[in-house]
Amino acid sequence: MQPVENFAPRVLAWFDEHGRKNLPWQESKTPYRVWISEIMLQQTQVTTVIPYYQKFMTSFPTVEALADAEQDEVLAHWSGLGYYARARNMHKAAKMLVDEFDSEFPQTVEGVCELPGIGRSTAAAILSISRGVQAAILDGNVKRVLARFHAVPTWPGEKKTENAMWELAEHYMPSERCGDYTQAMMDLGATLCTRSKPQCLLCPLQSDCQARLSQDPTQFPIRKPKKAAKPEKSIQLLVLVNQQGQCLLEKRPSTGIWGGLWSLPELASDESVVLHIEQRFATQVSAVTPLSPFRHTFSHYHLDISPSKIEIADTKQVMEGEKYQWFNQQDAMAQGLPAPVRSILEQLN
């Protein structure tokens, strides 16, 4: 993988004419604003992120505002974006910035990497875009561009291959216009050098791109060796509704799936709903109405969910506390909820 000359100038010239320059986080490129956008954009499309970002920045315009917020409030703003560890780590990092760094981001990639939830590429993106630091990134878009340009013959997830690609990324990083170059490489991968149907004829790097010359650019990057099929799990989620029309939500543990979010009481797929409710909450069930079952897919398994609406007459035994709380429909939807739980509660309207 020998570097070529004139790589960065071609990318920057393309960016000047075709790059994205009006995204919300590009309006004021402070480290805080860039950081929030970079975390939200992990595993998430730009079009999905924009309304979340705008609402988030309205509620938490500064790192101090984010640090002062309750975790429930932060998670409520994240509800629907998924990968909730991102939001929990962001909240922890904000507190750390305020308490230990006088609300200022560290000056180096290594320093930013000490914050929870921030790795080398994200740290470099924050510093290069907001401060013009000469720090290369290697996110998914950049990996795809470099893997195709050099027709990298091995899977980029292998450590040896990844190290070689970091060397390329650092070699091509210019000494000037670092932020524009970082954004240009992201845009190039997101808009032209896409996973399928890359628009090679519009690419500023086409004349030297080894994947284009191979006649089949989509064979790069080399795909990860296939794993076995995802395992399948199944659960029941229970919508307990009292006579006032309120539903019972349960606070999830701070770690694990849906950590820190409000969810619905859960039980195994083969358990009796009525018996479980009567034993767990010491209350009588008035009616059980099955709701539409559906599948929710995580990165590492499929979850088949069978929800039911459970009407109960007496809520005195179902005590509120840190773990359980009754909410009306509007208040429930304002909490930090996993996407499947939000979908279930929407069925009640």
TrEMBL record:
Residues annotated as domain HhH-GPD: 40-191
Name under which the protein is recorded: Adenine DNA glycosylase
Catalytic activity, reaction form: Hydrolyzes free adenine bases from 7,8-dihydro-8-oxoguanine:adenine mismatched double-stranded DNA, leaving an apurinic site
Note on cofactor: Binds 1 [4Fe-4S] cluster.
Record family assignment: Belongs to the Nth/MutY family.
Database matches in SMART domains: ENDO3c
EC top class named in words: hydrolase
